[in-house]
Design goal:
Layout lengths: L7 E5 L4 H12 L3 E6 L10 E4 L5 H15 L4 E4 L14 H26 L5 E6 L3 H4 L5 H21 L4 E8 L5 H8 L4 H10 L9 H12 L10 E4 L7
Parallel strand pairs: 1-2, 1-4, 2-3, 4-5, 5-6, 6-7
Helix pairs in contact: 1-8, 2-3, 3-5
Bound molecules: nicotinamide-adenine-dinucleotide.
Length: 244
């Protein structure tokens, strides 16, 4: 299939996990794709790679401008770069709060601000933000992370309202627990990683973790003309976790 033939896409955090699977899927479906990442050294052709730190506005503007020049325009922005945090409100200090909000929320604001002038030139403009079920699920030990993703959900709805008349759609995906290098790092830090993984899988209604490719599929749908009248929505990709 070639749902993305002729479209140009940019994926932040595209060197690993969900972002990487998304960049590869969009490219396989015909898009020209650029990746913005802190460490894009592992990104291979046909993906274009640009180094950027989403907490640094100048870095984002420079990388986005270079990527748009390489691509020859921009139709799709995937705001995916993000970091995790564990604990209750007593466990994270102000510095940790500002750091996670800076990456997970302001990072999306910076890339979107830099991308909007280019997206306005597109006939198929779409933004997809990687949110999380943490935005609405009330997960224990995730106060800071959940607050950051709650902000991403609200930001998605507000951006959808602000830009719908310009022909720019804005949606988000809410993944559950996804088998990415991030989750592997958390499991590896446990005393018995194999037992921890088995316990995590057992807690999933579907009995397994979500794959990065499955989240990429949902992002690709929301980014493609197939969802041309869908804006301001959150699509859960959580193996049945939502509401449980
Ligand atoms: P990952 O750690 O595998 O990949 C994240 C990528 O983002 C990395 O390549 C990293 O270099 C990049 N990145 C981090 N900080 C950056 C910065 N300041 N500037 C530029 N790039 C930066 O993680 P993942 O599991 O693929 O997560 C991707 C997104 O999915 C995140 O927004 C995360 O919150 C969200 N998410 C993940 C899960 C999960 O279970 N893995 C669940 C729900 C939501």
């Amino acid at each position: 299939m070639s749902d993305f033939e002729g479209l140009k896409a940019l994926v932040t955090g595209g060197a690993s996990g969900i972002g990487r699977a998304t960049a590869e899927l969009l490219a396989a479906r015909g898009a020209e794709v650029a990746v913005l990442d802190l460490d894009p050294s592992s990104v291979d052709k046909p993906l274009l790679a640009h180094r950027a730190d989403v907490t640094d506005d100048a870095s984002v503007r420079a990388a986005l401008s270079a990527a748009v020049t390489d691509l020859g325009g921009l139709d799709v922005l995937i705001n995916n770069a993000g970091i995790g945090a564990q604990g209750t409100v007593e466990d994270n200090d102000d510095e940790q709060w500002w750091r996670v909000l800076d990456v997970n929320v302001l990072g999306m604001v910076r890339t979107t601000r830099a991308a909007l002038p280019h997206l306005r030139e597109s006939a198929h403009a779409a933004i997809v933000n990687t949110c999380s079920i943490a935005a609405t699920a009330g997960l224990p030990q995730r106060a800071l992370y959940s607050a950051s993703k709650g902000a991403v959900l609200s930001l998605t709805l507000a951006m959808a309202a602000d830009h719908v008349r310009e022909g720019i759609r804005v949606n988000c995906v809410n993944p559950g627990t996804v088998d990415t290098p991030w989750v592997a790092r958390l499991l590896d830090a446990a005393p018995d990683p194999a037992a921890e993984r088995a316990a995590l899988q057992a807690r999933q209604p579907a009995g397994r973790l979500v794959t990065a490719a499955e989240v990429a599929g949902a992002i690709a749908y929301l980014a493609s003309p197939l969802s041309g009248s869908t804006t301001g929505t959150a699509l859960a990709v959580d193996g049945g976790m939502q509401g449980l």
